[in-house]
Design brief:
alpha/beta, 8-stranded mixed sheet, 10 helices, 283 residues, globular
Length: 283
Amino acid sequence: MKPVALLIALALPSFVHAAELFRIEKDVAYLDPERKEKADLYLPTSTPASARRPAVLIIHGGGWTGGDKGAAREINIGTNLAINGYVGMSINYVLAQTNGTNIVWPQNLHDCKTAVRWLRANAARLEINPDRIGVIGGSAGGHLAAMVAVAGPEAKLDPPGPYGEFSSRVQCAVDLYGPADLVNWKDIAAWRKSHTQDPELYRVSSPTTWADKSDPPILILHGTADTTVPVEQSELFAAALKKAGVEHELVIIPGAPHTFHLQPKQRDLRPLVLGFFDKHLKK
C-alpha cells in the first residue's frame, strides 16, 4: 500500500471507503494570484441538515525552510478532521530559501492569517461556520499555529490583505511541539539574523510574548523524546498562558519523538485532539 493510501486507511473506520466520507480538493489558490503557494481542502461529503461545518487550518512544519501541505502528518490530520465532520485546509506558505537571503518573517505568519480570512470569505461555498475556525500545526507549523492564536491586532502582525475585511482570529488552536519562546531558544537560520543582531525579532516572533486573557483555548502536545524542539519550549508556553489566564492544556507524550501525527505508536491522540476541537468548535 502506498504511504498516502496507508495514512488515509489508518484514519478510516473499518470497511469504510474514503470516498464515502470525504474528498480532497488540491492546489486551491488562497493568496494573491501571483503567489505559487496553494492549499489542499479536506471536505466531508455530507453536512447535517441546517448546520454549518467547523473548519480547521493545518500548518505544516519544516523549520520554516521546507515541508509541504501534503506531507504525512498533514494528510493524517486532514483525513481525521474530514471524516469527523470538519473542513480541513492544509496550506503551503512562504519558505526561507536554504541558500538564499529572502526574508520570510512575518510573511509566513501573514500567509497563515490570510488562510483564516480565506475560509471566512468562502464560508458559503464550503458550508462552514465562520465563527467556528480552529488551527493546528506541528513543529514550525506549531509555532505559526500558536502565533495565529495569540497574536491579535495589538501585535500589529495582521497582513493588510487580501481579504482584509475578514477577521484572522481563531476560536481554538492545537500546537504540536512547536518552539514558542524563541528568546530562550537557538538562533533561527530562516530569520536571517541572530539573537545578538536582532533580539527584538525573536521577542516579537515568540508566542509567549503575546499571551493574554483574550486568547482562545490552546492544546499543546509534546513528546519526551523530542531532540529537535526541547519539551521545555512547550512548558514555557504553557506557563505564559497560565500567567495570562488563558484556557489551555499541556499534554506530554512519554517516548514520543519529534514530528508525530495524531496516531503515533505511543498513544492514539485522536480522542484528545478531536475532543478538543469538538468542545470548542461544535458548540
